[in-house]
Amino acid sequence: MKQPAFFSCSPLFFLFLLCALPTAFFVDPPHAQVKNNNDALASRLNHYNASSFSLPWNCVPSYDCPVYFFESKLFTAYPSVNNFLPPSNNVSFLWGWGEDHGGSYEKPIPNDPRCGGYGVASRGPNGEPTAEFFKANLTLKIFNNETNSTQQLNKQLDLCRYSSCSSIQTPFQLNFSNEELSKAMPASNSTDFNLNVKLKGKVVFPYIETRTITSYRECPDDCSEGCECGCLTDMTTSYPDMIIEAESELKYIVAKPASVSSFVSNPFSRDAALNTVTFSQNSIYKAYALLDEKIVSAVYFFEFDKKRHANYGFEWIEKIEAQSKGVKASDAEAITTGFSNASGLLALKLVNCSDYSTRLSNCVSANSSNCSSLEQSVASCNVLPQRFHIAFTVSNALLGTREMKVSQRDVFSESKEAVFNNSFLSKTFLSLQAQKLSEEKVKATAFLKNEYSLPIPSAQISFSTREINSSCVTDLLGSCAVELFSNANETISIQASFAGSNELEPAKASHQLLIPPKRENVFGVLTFLIAIVIGLGGGFHFRFFK
After folding, report:
1. Which residue in 349, 335, 336 sits closest to 300, CA to CA?
2. pTM for the full predicted model
C-alpha cells in the first residue's frame, strides 16, 4: 500500500526542521546544573593526561622531549555569569593539573670522526614525577570614586605541595573573609571589584641519562706496551631533573551586593513626577510586580545560555540580551508565586541613564523633593554601568489594592523588593444626561468612571430636582438611570452626586433640561394658518380701514 505523502519526506527535511527551531535559553541562570557538572568533573582533574580530554601534545615524545604534555590550569569560577562573580565567599574555582611523559628513549650521537660511526644516548625516568608546588594568588582591586584611590587585597593559597598533591584541593574557594571584604568595600560610589586569580605550578621529572660514545685518544711518544690510546669507548651516567613550569590566570569582576538605592516616588502617589524605583550596583536580569504575592507584570532584560567546553567538559553561564515584557509561564518565580496572565496591570521598562537624567532634570526644575533626592545617584550613572532605573505605569486594575511590590532578581539569585502602600482616594468622574419622556416624566442617566476612564460598578448615585429625590446603583458599565416627575414649563434642573467610599473620592454633576413648546399650541397655530389659506382661496375678502 502506498504511504501518505507526509511519510515519504526525506529525513533531511526533518533535520532541517530541527535545525530551524530557535535555541531554547534559560529564563533563570542555571547555577545548580553548572555546579553539579563542575563538581563531578573535579575528581578527574588531579594528574590527568592529554588523552583524558582529547588535548593536543606539546611535542612528539622523544629523547629531547620526553615530557610531551604538562599544564596547570584554572578552568572556571562558579557561580558566575559572563565575567561577573557574586560578592561572597562561596565562589568555587575549578582547577587541575596534568602531565604525560614517555618511557626510555635513545638517539644516536656521532663518535669521533677519526673513529667513525655513532654512539648512543639513552634517557629514561628515574622515579615518578613530583608536583613540587601549586599555589593560587588572588588579587582584589577596589577603586573608590570618593577618594580617587585603589585599595588592593592580596592572598596566596597553597593548593598542594609535594605529597599533598595526591589529595588535590579542587575546587578551591575565594578566601577573603567577610570582614576583610567589608573593610575594603567603600560605603558608596565605587566601581565593581576586579579580581585576578593566578595559578602557578611546577613539576619535577627525575631522569637517568646514559651516554655511550667512541672517542679518539692520542698515544704518547713514550708509550710502552699497554697504553690506552686510539679509539676508545666510554659510558657516562647522570641523573638530571627536568623541571617544567606553567601558569594560568582568570579575571573577573566581583559585583557589589544587591541594593535598592532609592525609591523616587510611590507609584500610587498622584503628585509624583516619576513613577520610578531605582536598583543599583548589580547585574539584574528581571524585574516584576506583585499584587497579593502574585506576579502580575514582568520585564526580562536577559536570558541565559549554558556553555560547555568541547575538550575539558566544564560549564559556565552567559547572559543574552533579550528584552521582553509579560510574565513567562516558564519562569519558576512566576509559578511559585501564582502565575497570572494579567500582565497589563503594571508596565515595566528599563530607562537608560541619559533618558532618565533628562527626566530627572525636568523633575528637579519643578521643585519636586522626591526627584531632587536622587540627583546624586543619577550624576554617578555614567560611572556605574550596572546602575539602572525601572519605570512603571499604574493602571486602574490596581484600584483598591492596599500593597504593591516591585522586585528585582540579580543573576546570582539575590532579590530586593520595594513595597508601596495605596494610601489615597482614587479620583472619580460623574457625568449626567437627561431626556423628557412625557409631559410630566424625565429620565436621568448618570455615568461614573475612575481617573483611567473605566467604569465603576456597584456605586450608589443620588438624583434630585426641585420637586423630588431618587437614587440608583451603577451597573457593570458604571451607569444607572431613574425616572423623575416634573411640571416645569421651561427647564428642569437635575443634580446627581456620588458620596464616595473608603477608596473613591466623591463626585457631583448637574444638567439643565430645556422644555420644548407644547404640542397642542403648535397644532393651533398651524390650523389658523391653514384656515387663512383656505379662506383666501374661497373668495373671502378682507378690508383694511385706515
Report:
1. 349
2. 0.64
The C-alpha atoms of residue 274 and residue 518 are separated, in whole angstroms, by: 58
The distance between the two most distant Cα atoms of the chain, rounded to a whole number of Å, is 193
How far is the CA of 77 from the CAs of 83, 454, 510, in angstroms?
9, 53, 72
Rounded CA-CA distance 342/326 in Å is: 9
| pLDDT digits 0-9 by tens, 300-311 | 878 999 999 999
Report whether pLDDT(390) > 70: no
Strand partners, 447: 431, 479
Of 256, 289, 3, 311, the C-alpha closest to 142 is: 256
Instruction: Give the whole-angstrom CA distance, residue 528 versus residue 520.
Output: 12
DSSP state of 163: G
332 vs 321: CA distance, rounded Å: 19
Report the alpha-carbon distance of residue 145 to residue 379 in Å, rounded: 12
Q: Is the pLDDT of residue 502 over 80?
A: no
pLDDT digits (tens, 9 = 90+) for 437-453: 887 788 999 999 987 78
Q: Which residue pairs from 152-156 have beta carbons closer than 8 angstroms and sit at least 24 positions apart in sequence?
A: 153/180, 153/184
Residue 144 three-state SS: strand
N residues, the chain: 546
398 neighbors 266 (Cβ within 8 angstroms): no
C-alpha cell at 395: 493602571
458: β partners: none
Q: What are phi and psi of 31, to 5 degrees?
A: -65, -40
Q: CB under 8 Å to 152, separation ≥6 — which residues?
A: 139, 140, 141, 142
